[in-house]
Every structure is written in C-alpha cells, then in structure tokens.
Amino acid sequence: MFVSKYSNPEFSPYDDDSVPETTVPGNWPAPTVSHALSESLSLPGSKSLTNRELVLAALADGPSVLHSPLHSRDSALMIEALRALGVGITEVPTGNVFGPDLAITPGELEGGSSIDCGLAGTVMRFLPPVAALALGPIAFDGDEAARRRPMRTTIDSLRALGVDVSADGRGTLPFSLYGMGSVAGGDISIDASASSQFVSGLLLAAARFDNGLTLRHTGEKLPSMPHIEMTIACLAARGVIVESPEPGVWVVPAGPIRAIDVELEPDLSNAAPFLAAAVVAGGSVTIEGWPASTTQVGADLEQLLPLFGATATRADGALTINGGTGVIGGGSYPGIELDLSTGGELAPAIVALAALASSPSTITGIGHLRGHETDRLAALSAEINALGGAVTEFDDGLHIEPRKLHGGVWHSYEDHRMSTAGAIIGLAVEGVEIEGIDATAKTLPQFPALWATLVGDVPLTTTNTTTSLGLL
Ligand SMILES: O=C(O)C1=C[C@@H](OP(=O)(O)O)[C@@H](O)[C@H](O)C1
Ligand SMILES: C=C(OP(=O)(O)O)C(=O)O
Fold this sequence. Notes:
Elements: E1 28-29, E2 37-41, H1 47-59, E3 64-67, H2 73-84, E4 88-92, E5 101-105, E6 113-116, H3 121-131, E7 135-141, H4 152-160, E8 164-167, E9 175-180, E10 186-190, H5 197-206, E11 213-217, H6 225-237, E12 249-252, E13 262-263, H7 272-281, E14 283-288, H8 301-304, E15 311-315, E16 318-322, E17 337-339, H9 347-355, E18 361-364, H10 376-386, E19 390-394, E20 397-401, E21 408-411, H11 416-428, E22 432-435, H12 447-456, H13 462-465
Parallel strand pairs: 2-14, 3-13, 6-7, 10-11, 17-18, 21-22
Antiparallel strand pairs: 1-22, 3-5, 4-5, 7-9, 8-9, 11-12, 14-16, 15-16, 18-20, 19-20
Helix pairs in contact: 1-2, 1-3, 1-6, 3-5, 5-6, 7-11, 9-11
C-alpha cells in the first residue's frame, strides 16, 4: 500500500465508537449522509498538470519551481523516475497542507535505470520518449494491473523514430529501450485511439528531438482531446508552439523548452465525487480555487452536474454545486444521455450518479476506459449490479436503469475512481463497504480525510492530512 507522507489515508469519517462493522476487516465503510451538505473544500494539485510540468521542467533549459504540485502515488512515481534519469528534484517547504513545492534542476539524461510506472498512465506513456533522449538502457515496468494497459502505440512510435526497443509481442509493460542520447525525430503516424496519452507523451518530448516531430493520428477516434490541448497549452507557456494544420496532425518545432515557475491548479477531475455528493445529499458543495479558465476537463462538471438537476454557480474563484433537496432529502433527479469521449476520467462519478437517478441513462464514447486502471465499464457494471442495480455494458459505453440499491462490498480494482464512485453511491445506500480505498492514493491520498470533512463536518486539519509531514 502506498502511504503518502502528505496524508493519513487511515483517517475515518466516523467517531471511534460509531464505526460500522464491515464484513471484511480492512474494508472502508462508506458513510451515508442524512443531512443536506453545506461544505467548502480545497483540493490538491492536478495530476495531469503536475506530471506534465514535471516532465517539461526536467527537459527545460534551466532550473524551475512548481508551486502547489500534487503529492500522490502518480506524482511520486514521476518524481522518482525523473530522478533516476538524472534530474534533480527537491522539496521546498511552504506550509501548504497538501505538501511542499518542488524545485527541478534538469541534468544530462542518463540510462541504466529501471522505471516503476506503478499504475500511472502519465508515467508509462510520457516517460519512454524522454528516456529515448538519455544514453543507455532503461527498463519500464509497473503494477500487475499496469501490465494490462495498452502500450503498443508507445512501443511502435519509438521504433518508428529509430529507437531500439525490446518488447515481447503483447504490446504492454514490461519493455525496455536503449537510449542513444538523441532522437532524430521527423514524421510518424500512430494510432492513438486507445489513449490520448500516446499523443501527449510524444508532444511533450518532441521539441528536444533533433528535427522536432510531425505526428499524425491515423485511428478512427481519439479520446480525451482536452488532455491533448492541455499538453499543447503547457508547451506554449514554455515557448514551444505546436501547430495543428488539420485535425489529428501536430507539428512540434525543434527548440528549447523554456524553464518557468508554474502554479498548479487544483485537480478538477478529483472534484467530481465531492461535487456529485451535493447532487445526492442535497445542499451545496463548494470547491475553492476553481480556475477562471483552464484546460482541465473537470471544468465540464459545471455543465454536467446541472444535467442531473443541480445548479452550478461560480463566484469568488470557487464553484458551488447545489443539489436542492437531493435524494437524501426525498427528491429525485433524472438520468442522462451523454457522450463522454472527451472526459472519460469523469465517467465513474457520472455513472455513480446515474445509478441513483430516477430514470435511465446511457453514457457513450467511453470504450477506451476498458484500458484505464481497470476495465471501468466491466467494473462499474459488476459493482453496481452486485448492489441490485441494472447496468448493461456495450462496446462503447453503459446503459443504466434505475433500481433500488442495497448495501454490500464494492470492489475498487486498484482504481482510485472506482473507490470514489463507490463512496458516492454509499452516501445514499446503507451498508456499502469499499474494498481497496487505498487506491485513492493514486491521485488524492487525502480522499478519506476530505470525505470525512464533507459528510461529517470534521475539519480538515494538520492531524488528518499532514500527520507525518513535519512542515507545520
Ligand atoms: O494525459 C492525461 O493526463 C490523461 C489523459 C486521459 O487518458 P486517456 O486518453 O487514456 O483517457 C485521462 O483519462 C487520464 O486520466 C489523464
Ligand atoms: C485514467 C486515469 O489515469 P491514468 O493517468 O493512469 O491514465 C484516471 O486518472 O482516470
């Protein structure tokens, strides 16, 4: 189990004498809520932005500082991997409850290491093109579950760039490459229909290729376009202007990646379960520090949650979702028909809400979620149906019929968004116990503490978020 030193994942939303029994010791009893919410929360930095900025700072033309970065398993894996490649990364204490800033000093990229990708898509897809710029052999592996995630496009694209890659034919981790200290670059075509991260990984490193890169996506569909736009925006802020002469084609000029200090935005996708809680419980949840403009797809929650009858208000740099009376207060909200191809990482929270809706929902455009931390379509339908739900899977999505749900064990499949989807359902359904709540450490180790704050008015303090931080 990963325990971030910036959190205390053991923190429970219950008083010591009121913790419900679970059928299996170690399961997390998802708290129900019996009152309308009225809570305001801050969240730690964005995973997607933190791991992009770590890579770009490592490839930049001088030292820089990342302010308010995420500290979680995915960012820790990225930091360790970059250090193994010869990049200097040190913590700069600030008093921020979510952890210190990071000072990054680029170095000559060196081989000779084995990189643990854990279960992080951003590590396994972003770092191989960076490693190709190093000198020497570099091996990539990860969790057992990571060995099921699609990697063929990364492997094929590196080979198309002339990089020597050793891999069996399965198109997954583990594999290794032999970096020659430079990559010529040029013109390659890839099929990124399984993940936008194949595109982002190449774009992030391409300015450091001798001839830059012209990248063409040849597959039928391309999920998560906002994440590619995020990559392009992060590069632009560092002076690398990526042109897209036609959809699915990107041209990255060779040149320096400028070192800049960056303030990270809070993770808006991680806001999804907290804001969804207002829809279920009624009342309001406010997320502080909501950026006025952003490339994060989590910003779509402002439009998505009103589809379930909630109202969204932006004021004073915060987003508030008000769920009215909520299901808990005796209200109901309708199901939805939605193509979520641009925001697949929001799907588990949206599907959890759909499972509590009063009419059917159909979510499409999310077939690629079968290659996420787990096959999310199979996992969501199995877990909701085990609680008495009626979810059917099709290739590209899920259909959810309204049913009265009952308690039971909700499996996380080591997937942080499965854990949090179970917590949303548990707000309204007595006796839901979550197996594997620790999976939330992937991007939000403070989830149990923040959820306790949300449902139980337990103040978020240095005791429940930063016990072992030693900064304050
Ligand atoms: O580039 C990124 O930071 C991400 C891209 C998306 O991946 P896919 O395109 O594989 O869905 C998203 O789901 C993931 O959580 C983060
Ligand atoms: C798909 C996700 O993660 P990853 O970055 O590992 O792909 C996610 O966080 O929903």
